[in-house]
Amino acid sequence: QSESIELGRPLTNKHIKRYCIIDDLKEIHVKISDRRCDCQCSNRETTPAFTSVLTNAQSVSRNVAITFDRVVVNIKDGYDTTTGIFTSPNKGVYNFSSTVMNAQGQTLWGTETVLDLFPEYKIVQRRIDALENDNKALKVEIDALENDNKALKVEIAQIKDKQIRPAFFSTLSKSAVLSNSNKVLIFDGVKVNRGGGYNPSTGIFTAKRDGLYHFSCVIYGDNGKDVGYQLNKNDSLYVRGYSNTGPHEASSISVLVELKKGDRVYIKHRHLGSDRGSYWK
User: Fold this and answer.
1) Which residues does residue 234 pair with via DSSP β-bridges, in sequence order?
2) Span of 41-50, 66-75, 171-180 with lowest mean pLDDT
């Protein structure tokens, strides 16, 4: 049968009698400790153990230890009834349990500071905390170094790109039939393509960086045919060229072009007309 005991009210004789089982436990403990019993446990007298109860209700305040003042068992005298603190006499793993009851609807918070009994654990824990902080600092430093490394790689790539002067030389692998005024002449026979700016699949050169570029082109009209062509910068006409009628007539253009990164230059076919004299250089 259970009965509530209010905090702040001392235990009566009635209550003590109802908890006489504690005395029975003490008697059993004495019997077990007797060397004449059949139990042959080698560490029964050396293992620290204690059991203590509260004989009078206590009014407790924050961060104050509750003193269980009536000792039932206290092997190795680890428990102090005046302070309510157990001090471990031996190094090892301990099991603790407690039962606390409050009264009059008040809230009672309890904290177990078992690890406070092991100062060596605190030392190790402080070392672990310090190592974790060092590890965090190292991670921050590693992240900063990785960012610096990425920035250096970009800078090195830019330096290498500046050291490589773009240049290309390409020819027609076979004669081209020009029937479309918008057809780009694709010089597919690449001999040199330093920097990879020229695309032999499209016939277009794309500037990899800003600069002043020089382009030259030679066009020969087969069988004495007139050939009109032009050099474009992006989608705009830059200069025209013309291969005159004759058995072995050829035409060439040579130009300087200011380009920004991403600008495109290419040769395209054009119909001949009255504008032969414009854009000639």
Assistant:
1) none
2) 41-50
